[in-house]
Amino acid sequence: MHDYARKTLFIGGEWITPAGTDLIEVIDPSTEQVIGTVPGGTEADVDAAVSAARRAFDPLISVAERRQRVAAVIAALEKRLPDIAETITREMGAPVRIAQTVQTQVPLAVARGFADVLDGFDFEEQVGNSLILREPYGVVGAITPWNYPLYQVVAKVVPAIAAGCTVVLKPSNEAPLSVFEFVEALEEAGLPAGVVNLVSGRGALIGERIAAHPEIDFVSFTGSTGVGARVGELAGRSVKKVALELGGKSANVILDDADLATAVKVGVGNAFLNGGQTCMAWTRMLVPQSRYGEALELIEAAVSKYTVGDPLDPATRIGPSASAGQFETVRGFIERAQRDGARLITGGAEPIREVGYYVAPTVFGDVDPDSELGQEEVFGPVLAVIPFTDETDALRIANGTPYGLSGAVWAADTDRAIAFAREVQTGQLDINGGKYNPVAPFGGYKKSGIGRELGRAGFEEYLQTKSLQLPA
Ligand code: NAD
């Protein structure tokens, strides 16, 4: 049974009534109906959560204890995955097939990846006459967005637990209900009181208090670049470590001798995954001028398979935008792209249903790389197709945005694609359809962020380093 009428916060191992009376409504974007509420916490709730996390933090925690905690979390998470998938469908409109796979199985794989990293990790190393110790960083503030609500929380909470840290977690207001269910799983896992604390609430209040809190040692934030900059500013003032996973405008670069049909099919699928609400989506498709007409035909054919509809229908590939605000944002981008002279190939800004925040999958051709659509993250099912003349031009366009999160390169020869990828300023690139790896470091260049998540690199973010110079 789901409890969508949440009235309590999880602090110090107990579900407690918050200090204030604010309640935040959660809306099903396919029906526009309120399906639940979560408390809007106060600064006093953050302070209580930080105190609980501080009390639970033991810098000398054994590795065996951490392994036991991570194993218990994975077992409890696995049991709750079907429930959590249902909730993600309801709170943010993810089609069931996406909710049951990418939204939940990927976080499980990520959590298992951290268990493996922990198993193989050396916490002590001798360098010359020094003994180098890797210690848990301390109390972590984790602030997460709505688009992959479970994944983003798992990518922070599990490495924090593996490292021996304790956590104060603030989920998004659009999709917080799945996070409450994840925290129940943590409770079922028997974590000691205060290891993970949950405070839902308004970003400007709860998020800023976490970022500025003097007793938090490290803030790990995932969200928009604008809010990330604010979090970094507040964390900087209190001299705490910060990791920022921010937006993207990633390029899918299809070189002239690539298998165009495959590159287009995979590229369209990537751009529209989760309704385009994916930070690492390849939202710009860079196509050689010499094959441009052929590419547009293939794109149109591929897009026609992306059925938009009720997220509960197993045939649906694209559900609604996750919120009314996001719906209006996406439609605004489409309208302005048309005004900017981009060629509408398919889709458009018109809502495609009377009820629910549904936008048609939309493709623009002849997009000026320097226009708003060529530069800014839309976070909806909108693909910008940009022709290039040669490799130099493709590289200039690929690197020509403020972002650098993800991307892809396709060429007949994999070595040629790798050589091109070496020059792209981005944190992750798929070469000729190379598949997703849940333990490969993930994070941004430029305005896409600071730091890395996942795998060993993601785990090491939660560790502090100490050097002991030993006597001869
Ligand atoms: P957002 O920045 O609006 O919100 C993210 C979180 O920050 C939410 O919990 C929100 O309540 C909180 N917040 C809001 N204002 C705050 C403030 N002033 N101080 C502290 N916290 C505050 O982002 P969103 O709309 O929820 O998510 C979409 C964005 O997230 C997109 O830009 C997307 O690219 C990005 N994103 C990045 C990654 C990544 O790994 N790089 C992954 C997913 C999403």
UniProtKB/TrEMBL annotation:
GO terms for molecular function: aldehyde dehydrogenase (NAD+) activity. It holds the Pfam family Aldedh. InterPro entries: Ald_DH/histidinol_DH, Ald_DH_C, Ald_DH_CS_CYS, Ald_DH_CS_GLU, Ald_DH_N, Aldehyde_DH_dom. The keyword Oxidoreductase applies. PROSITE patterns: ALDEHYDE_DEHYDR_CYS (PS00070), ALDEHYDE_DEHYDR_GLU (PS00687). Residues 15-467 form the Aldehyde dehydrogenase domain. It catalyses: an aldehyde + NAD(+) + H2O = a carboxylate + NADH + 2 H(+). It comes from the Bacteria. It is an enzyme of class 1 (oxidoreductase). Its EC number is 1.2.1.3. Keywords: Oxidoreductase. The keyword Calcium does not apply. The active site is at residue 245. Belongs to the aldehyde dehydrogenase family. This is aldehyde dehydrogenase (NAD(+)). It comes from Mycobacterium scrofulaceum.
